[in-house]
Each structure stands twice: as structure tokens, then as C-alpha cells.
């Protein structure tokens, strides 16, 4: 019989997940179970599918839908949630949204076709974006989907499209408003243009069905959204005076999520300096990784915020019989995926510091390309035995000097080694696949989905082959 001591060393040493000491990621229990209790399964998956590997848990999106629903029900508003599919290319997440009974916010003909393949009711599609193509308009009209019209120019194009469409076709539209505080934005319409469109729509009700107003703002505050709703109240009145029947106010996305503990995060921000970065510079902006408010608290505050005539936003929507539509992307994908990179090599630099090279690139973890950084530390899965504090930045496998997963010197509790894994948590929201490509002819990173069978056992299957 072969004794353990004759097996290769890598097989005998204990594989362990080393939780980061500083910016430790918040993990959904299902994800934590895999990362901390079953790290070997991650090693096996990366062995099978390659590095980097994106792993998606679709049931978590459904949990997020339910959590938002509880807030909406508590305020007794009529609501319609559309999953902002742009946040991630996973078809399994789109399917989860449809199975959770919500609609899908689509920004291209391809996202729209994904959602239709996932079985969405076409009437529960909402198309946003300022540059929809003729083909996209035509398919939206054919599917009787809701179209957020971004400009008077788009309305003209849509009307032209209706002339080419099947007899009797009707376009269902929202008008996208550009709130006063965003006057320089290229998205949406200011007051005059909005009025012009409303007048136009009041004259062609048989071909274009006006259903209400839309906006989407950058940033994550609820107050600018509350202000935008206040501004829209006068256009709701005007629309009615023109004989139109607005039914929806769609407030877009931008609900914040929390990646790390808020106190830890704030302490980290206060303490960090250029010495913590290989560039010697602290980036100017970060996603609010440790924000005080999560998506549900945010929505609750928005609905309770003052609107007009002494009413809260919820009170206003209810007295006006308006439906609140939302298009959350990041907040519905919260916690639903991780990205796992295998360590290729650790190299000592002239500075005396190590750099950790991984199989994969910053295109699969794209914060540095936006002059920002992950302020969430990766969990190290390693067979290392001894504790040893070490700080290192993490580099991708390309020849670009800027290809770094993080410029920040990440504090490890042990020295990473070739073959170890770095698990970046909660990457579903715009991070894992926004910029991915085949640079250097590396194949596209794979994505797998974890679902659970009737006995509760995890079943892993590919989630990256689009028809
Ligand atoms: C029109 C529109 N709706 C919804 C979203 C989703 O935003 P988030 O992922 O921040 O919720 C976006 C994001 O850019 C958007 O442009």
C-alpha cells in the first residue's frame, strides 16, 4: 500500500482558505460555504475550466429580488422591477430574473434576445440606452416591449420604424427625463424637449402608446432620485392635461451594495496612503465598497422621502396611481458570483517587494482600467503552512504594464505560491466580464453556474455558451 509520504507534496499538505485580515469580503452563506469549507472544489473547478473562472450562483439573484419586493410591499406601492441585464453576461442570471417573475432591462438587441430565450414575457422587456439601432427598434416594436425614448431624435426614428412595421403595430414608450442637476449629461431630455415630445405623442396616440417617464442617474445617492421624481410631477400633470395617461415612473438603477463592513472600510480609507499602492498614488475615486446603506435601506429611504403636497414618494405614487419601475443591475447581482484566479508565479522585484502573477488579466477584474481599485481583498486558497505577513500587488499575464488586478499592495497572511487561488468575491456587478477579451490569444474566461438539486447538492454547469 502506498503511504501518504510517497504522494506528491502538493497533495498531502492541507489546503486552506486564508481570510483577509483587512478588507474581508462579505459573502453570501452559499458562497462562504464553498470558499471556506470546500476550497478543494474551487481548485477542482479551476483545474477543469481554467483560470480565471467566474462562478455564478443564480439563486442569490432571486433572494435579492425577494428582498427588494419586501420593501416595495411594505410601502404598498405598485411596482415593476426590470433586471438590468447589462451588469453581467450570464444567461443563468437572466433566467433567474425571469424565474423570479421580474422583467428585464435590455440595452441591445442581443440582451433582448437573451431575455426572450430565457422566457421573459416580451411585454416585461424595457429597452434603455440612447443609441438604439433600427433593428433593435423593429424587434422591440414586434415584441410590444417597453421602449425608453432618449431624445426627440429617437422618437422620430421610432415613428419611421413604425411606418415600416406590420399594420396596426404600436410602440409602447416611456420618455427619458434628464434631471435638472444633470444638465450636461448626454442621456435623456430636458424640460423643453420633453414637452415637445409629449405634445407630439398626444397627437398620435393610436401608433405610440405613452406609458410614462424614465430616468437613470449616475452615482448611488437616493436623494438625487427623489429630487428627479419631484421634478417629474409637473410633467405627469402636463401629460394628463394633454390627454395622455402616464402610468409609470421608472427610476432606473444605481441601488448601492455593500462589499465589506462599513466601519472597517471607513477606517481603511482614513488610513491608506500612497505607500499602499505600487504607483505611489491613491486613486481619486472608488465604488463605495463599504457604504452604510444597502439596496433595501436605500429603496426604503427613497420611498419615504418627501415628494410634493406633504406626500412621501410612495404617497405621491399611490395617490396618482403610478407604478414605480426600477432597473437594478448591480444590486440584483449582489453576491451572486466570484472570480477565481490561479497564481502562476511570485516574483521578487528590485524594490524587495514581491509581485503575484496570476493566470488571467485585469480585463476580468476591471477596476484599474477605470483608474480605480478593488477595495475588497481576495481570499487566498493555499497549501502554505506558516503564517507570514506579506504585501504584494497582483499582476495579470499580459505584457501591458497596466495589466494589474490591483495596484494596491494587498496584505496576505501567508506568502502566495504557484498553484494557489485568489478568490475575488462579489464580482458579478460590472467587474468580471465587462472588458474580457482574447488578448494574447488566451481563450475567453469560462463562466459556470452552481445550482442545487432536489437533495441540496450543488450541480455545476457551463454558463457561457450563448446560442
Ligand atoms: C438606463 C440604466 N438602467 C439601469 C442601470 C443599472 O444600474 P445599476 O447596475 O447601478 O443598478 C444602468 C446602468 O448603467 C442604466 O444605464
TrEMBL record:
Query: InterPro entries per the record?
Result: Ala_racemase/Decarboxylase_C, De-COase2_CS, De-COase2_N, Orn/DAP/Arg_de-COase, PLP-binding_barrel, Y4yA-like
Keywords, sorted A to Z: Pyridoxal phosphate
Does this entry carry the keyword Transcription regulation? no
Keyword Hydrolase in record: no
Check the record and name the PANTHER family matching this protein.
DIAMINOPIMELATE DECARBOXYLASE, GROUP IV DECARBOXYLASE
Report the residue ranges that make up the Orn/DAP/Arg decarboxylase 2 N-terminal domain in this protein. Answer: 67-263
What this protein is called in its record is Orn/DAP/Arg decarboxylase 2 N-terminal domain-containing protein
For activity, the cofactor(s) needed are: pyridoxal 5'-phosphate
* Pfam families linked to this entry: Orn_Arg_deC_N
Q: Which domain of life is it from?
A: Bacteria
